[in-house]
Automatic annotation (TrEMBL):
Transmembrane segments: none
Keyword list, A-Z: DNA recombination
Domain Tyr recombinase: start-end pairs: 38-187
Organism domain of life: Bacteria
Gene Ontology BP annotations: DNA integration; DNA recombination
Identification of the protein by name: Resolvase
Coiled coil regions in record: none
Amino acid sequence: MMPALPGPGVSFSAAQLPVAIDYPAALALRQMALIQDELPKYLLAPEVSALLHYVPDLHRKMLLATLWNTGARINEALALTRGDFSLAPPYPFVQLATLKQRTEKAARTAGRAPAGSQAHRLVPLSDHHYVSQLQMMVATLKIPLERRNKRTGKIEKARIWEITDRTVRTWLSEAVEAAAADGVTFS
């Protein structure tokens, strides 16, 4: 799902982009990645920005921005709580629980983690605009650190996004459809 962009030879000035990137080179690398079936499809920074423009609210936009800024899988992002984020300068980061493990390699590794434990990875959050938007969302929506589980009655860490992975895919589809209505296509 890539948007149709200007062809080769089109350049952007530093004033048009938040960071200096070699856009033609990035586009060429993505085209090479598309040839390989085992590699995931991905969007470039300007394309992500265009897609986020078509997301209607802050809650949805921040989930999709979290996927982009952290490289998290959908279910890894949905498992995040406020406690997983350290947004203090100068080095804000998020701790992601790695939900997908390669079991065949883990099963034969001598120093593997004990059963029931979960691997985590720390991801630096280098986009200051994303960090401030995340802080604003948490404050605006009053997302708590903990909440009572309706089924068990126990107090648990509150997930930031209490939705399913299917809902996230629906939100993405809706954004792509809204973009298509404006003539921005993703392939």
